[in-house]
Amino acid sequence: MATRSLFRGRALPLALVAPQIAITLIFFVWPAAQALKQSMLIEDAFGFGSEFVWFENFESVLTDPGYHNAIAVTALFSIGVMLVSLSLGLLLAALVDGVTSRRVGAIYRAISVAPYAIAPAVAGALWFFIFNPTVGIVTHWLGLVGIDWNHVRNGDQALLLVILAAAWKQIAYNFVFFLAGLQSIPRSLIEAAAIDGAGPGRRFVSIVLPLLSPTAFFLMVVNLTYAFFDTFPVIHAVTQGGPGNATETLVYKVFRDGFIGLDLGRSAAQSVILMVVVAAMTVVQFRWVERKVHY
């Protein structure tokens, strides 16, 4: 039977939620309001003056071919990161879940989770060096089989490299949640399906995947947000948006226009657009995609 906690007065519940409200106001609402205000200004690069221009910055951004390229790159990059990290995270979780020895399973779990402890910039630098066109060990192996790898001048290779680097960093996070989801599935269901003649593939598709759908939905939302925002250090360490803007995502374009080009108004307008797009995508996911989730 569910129980309810009752407070005598409003002081205590307000005091309990006050830290969270303060954090939300200071680190989300106030910066968002500042970005919206700055997006309607044309400012001097050194902060000596500003002019209120309403929505001219948004019009300039939305008609910029470079911004259209960043949208396409972000779409490909986000889908690639999400698919690679989710599929490999699920594969590793299924393999570790099938290990019967506790000691061996613990070793496998520790190895699988280790990449998540690496800073994104360090992960990017690691992938940059192993795929370096001159001294990279993987580049050397690819050359032995006739593949010319040089992501410094090949945009498609550069995009593939940052997708792999960003996904590798996120696989460990997905692995932990998928493994927890797999271990929460009653073994009696799997055994009953096996007795009825269902093979491993059939059991996985018909029983395991539907029961993992809440976990998969949560990870899809998290991975999409990660691909949009948290992959900036990886891209900056590996390609810096190049070559020829082939890996310039929306977040990286905000940085390049604001901190390198010193066009603060356009940069703020891009950040506002990005915030609206991510919020809309999250709403769509919860409104329509969640309908196919089995709780």
Automatic annotation (TrEMBL):
Classification via CDD domains: TM_PBP2
One Pfam entry name: BPD_transp_1
Keywords noted in UniProt: Cell inner membrane, Cell membrane, Membrane, Transmembrane, Transmembrane helix, Transport
Keyword field contains Protein biosynthesis: no
Cell compartment(s), UniProt: Cell inner membrane; Cell membrane
GO (cellular component) term, any one: plasma membrane
Example GO biological process: transmembrane transport
Residues passing through the membrane, by range: 12-33, 70-95, 107-130, 158-182, 203-229, 268-289
InterPro entries: MetI-like, MetI-like_sf, UgpAE/MalFG_permease
Residue ranges constituting the ABC transmembrane type-1 domain according to the UniProt record: 71-285
Membrane association type: Multi-pass membrane protein
Subunit text: The complex is composed of two ATP-binding proteins (UgpC), two transmembrane proteins (UgpA and UgpE) and a solute-binding protein (UgpB).
Protein role: Part of the ABC transporter complex UgpBAEC involved in sn-glycerol-3-phosphate (G3P) import. Probably responsible for the translocation of the substrate across the membrane.
Protein family according to the UniProt entry: Belongs to the binding-protein-dependent transport system permease family.
Protein name (record): sn-glycerol-3-phosphate transport system permease protein UgpA
Gene: ugpA
